[in-house]
């Protein structure tokens, strides 16, 4: 059927009106980043975990919520420049972080971290230094700002003699961060330490891995004048 010029003009006008209508669909939502992590319950101050900005100036406030406060409890729930959570017990929890800029109510981005909390177990059957067994020091080791997950201090000096509990294996060790890396327990047990030395030990059992550091207290007074 032929259309009149009037009908054609009306049809064209309707098409133009449809094209010019504003988009009413959903607006693009803030980006959500998802990840998985394994944390360890030690029963020490190391169980308080703080979160800081990844890049300075990238945001001014951050808030966090926990899906399972019995496993991971939020210590600072308000919008702050940093937040902290406390590991309560073994289990799973999803931590949701929202990052804000200035006084804006809408977050710049959201991060959801699925955390598996594993109870810390001392992997050392014995940890002898010059005949002194200091394995008990690793029952509740404290964390430190270093390469190691757990650090202990001791004034014991002498030859090392480490024995691991069943299922644990040494994957790497370093002595005073020398260029040479130790790859076996038998090789590590040939090392002797003195005051001021450091020993770093990487251990693994299944999917669980720890990095330990022994700091030998005291220094070498013979070098001082």
Shape: elongated
Report the structural category: mainly beta
- Output the number of helix runs: 2
Low-confidence stretches: 11-28, 221-225
- Considering DSSP H and I runs of 4 or more, what fraction of the residues is helical? under 10%
- Strands of the biggest beta sheet: in what spatial order? 1-7-6-3
Which series of helices and strands comes N to C?
A: HEEEEEEEEEEEEHEEE
Q: Count the E strands.
A: 15
CA-atom Rg in angstroms? 29 Å
Mean pLDDT: 80
**Which range does the strand content fall in?**
35-45%
The biggest sheet, with number of strands, parallel, antiparallel or mixed sense and barrel status, is: 4 strands, mixed
Instruction: Identify the quaternary structure here.
Output: single chain
Intertermini distance: 110 Å
Structural notes for this entry:
By secondary structure, this protein is mostly beta strands. The protein has two helices and 15 strands. It has helices at residues 5-20, 185-188, and strands at residues 31-41, 48-51, 61-66, 72-74, 83-87, 91-100, 109-119, 124-129, 132-133, 150-154, 158-164, 169-175, 192-193, 198-205, 208-216. The chain has a four-stranded mixed β-sheet with strand order 1-7-6-3, with no helix packed on it. A four-stranded antiparallel β-sheet has the order 9-8-11-13, with no helix packed on it. A hairpin with a 2-residue loop joins strand 8 (124-129) and strand 9 (132-133). The longest helix has 16 residues, at 5-20. The model is unreliable at 11-28 and 221-225 (pLDDT under 50).
